[in-house]
Amino acid sequence: MTPDALDTGDFSLTLRKPHISDSGNYTCSFTDGREELRVTDVHLQVKVSHHTLAVEVLEGAESVLLPCQDSSVPRFPTVEWIRYDLSPSTVHQRQTSGDQLKNQNHLYSDRTSMKTDALTTGDFSLNLRKPRLSDNATYICSIRAFGNERRLAALQLLVKEPPPVWPKVLVGLLVVVVLGVIGGLLFHFRHYFMSEYQVVVDPGVESVELPCKTTTRLPKDARVEWTDGDARKVHVYKNGSDHPEEQNQFYRNRTKMKRNLKTGDLSLTLKYPTDGDTNTYTCRVYDKEGKILMEKHVELRVKVLQVTEVDPWVESVQLPFRTTELPGDTRVEWTDKGNRKVHVYENDSDRPEEQNQIYRNRTKMNEDLLKTGDLSLTLKYPTERDSGWYRCLVYNKEGEILRWKIVELRVKVLQVEVDPGAESVQLSFRTTELPGDTIVVWWDRDWRKVHVYKNGSDRPEEQNQIYRNRTKMNEDLLETGDLSLTLKYPTDGDRGGYRCLVYDKEGEILRWKTVELRVKVLQVEVDSGAESVQLSFRTTELPGDTIVVWWDRNWRKVHVYKNGSDRPEEQKQIYRNRTKMNEDLLETGDLSLTLKYPTDGDNGEYRCRVYDKEGEILRWNRVELRVKVHQVEVDSGVESVQLSFRTTELPGVTRVVWWDREWRKVHVYKNGSDRPEEQNQIYRNRTKMNEDLLETGDLSLTLKHPTDGDTNTYTCKVYDKEGEILMKKQVELRMKDRVQVQDVTSPLMAEDVV
Questions:
Q1: Do 703 and 711 meet the contact criterion of CB atoms below 8 Å apart?
Q2: Quick one: DSSP state of residue 16?
Q3: pTM of the model
């Protein structure tokens, strides 16, 4: 308010930077402390800017996408879609932990969704299912983190009713009516149907026609005016000729009218239409007294140009924009979604000093762009950070907009897949030459520093210890612009997204790129009955106080290496005397594990974790083990068949039991001898095991005189003195003129205890 408001009586209020959310009723009143007197009520309506992105959809459509993208995603962000005209105003909210829809307006329940990786990719577009007429509104997309909030996009959603069906039905019915009636009705409805058109055109076309036709005979002295939705004159025709001096300069040299008053065809051709031309155009015909003889409306929608996704390794991409010849004093300005200047052309030359530093040496436009009207922009070495909306604005010397266009660019995230056991993998990133004081940092998905280059050299002391001695970059990286990273001995633990951020000396980001690394899980397959199998894991040299632990799928310790030696007392007893690692494993980086006498009970996933002395994980890897089915065939009528099971020496074992499918005891060995009194009577005097089975580890069972009745699944379980299962194997026996022994995978279960 003005400082002298109480003296002058001017209580006017100035509201700076009005938002759509400011729309509403405002009351001005004053009080003496006892009574309040209302002076006036004012209704404020903040209209949507002409340049606000409009999204149109028909009611009943399956869904509509409201685009919103940002390249700079802070840590622990909250992204929110809002409709300020509702209470509560939240349409959708996403946090690091997932969707937060507690305060969502009930009108949008079960109708909104965002991509699962939105906070990683920066694509916060909202998918709205089953759009309704009540969804017509302005939607705000914003991001918030650590108390700071940025508005990313304001979009106007226009949900329109689908075209009526009754005109089509009427036409169908009229077919059966007398020809004279048809002519009369069609002539009557023709003016209604043709009073408003809708024209949709693809971007990049040379021209589009806005139809305006009438059967009414027009006088020779009629004046024809085409105007847009902002009341700017698009084209003027009077006194038998065009009058370009009256049209708005935005449309200069871009329009042409048919000028046929006799036939009533006053259609307008608009050259090089862009999304900036999306508007409602009106064709009016006046007589010499200024009375409107005819009025037609044409709604033009130029689709936003979406550049086909480009691969992340391409050298350049072109953002196309073609128009007509422009005056020599024209200014051309390309900006990105963050309103940063990408490229500026003025006074017949580029203006690199005006462009944002992240685009320095990366953009190019044609030399004769004003003469040819080709305002296309070439962007070198695009990365996924460059994905988003780009706008080209064309100004005259007074700063008024002559042309404008929006182009969408999508750059795929580079995905690198490598086989397990590879010695190294390269995460590629190529750009243009960079200043000598540039800082380059590669980060992993948990924002740990993978590699740091600063002041002309690597900085291993700054990188996270899990990447020490495992990374390498080129020596002349700033001169060549090759910022690729080589990661040695990649494992499954290295999978995920890696980001390379390029900073100037003030810490501003100049470039960035994301590379998605996928390391296949090593799968090892071995025949049943093999003496051993190796679970491979190779890495770089490790410190002497490193701890290495192999775990199975149930997180039981398979093998422990600590303080320079194995620790068998820490491993689970089912793996005692069955595992082995190299003696010089820390020096060579070979952390492979040898597992003796693998059985189907050993099937599953094994994880190796490498810890420092504080217990922090330095490396990790996964190996999938599968023991193949072992088949044995014997002729029918043989005297016996052996169900094989070999392992290592079993000290401390008190009981070995073979069971059949009905959980009948086939054979029992306990406390150093067989227990025939415990076995089921159908197996009495028909089974045999070795006498020194615990010392040799040979737990095979011999079944005498097998018959078809013995076709069954047999399970051998080895128990300790507490009744816990140390080992388990299944063998399937089938008798059909032959004996077939088949291993069946059966994971150890915690409840398998006697």
A1: no
A2: S
A3: 0.49
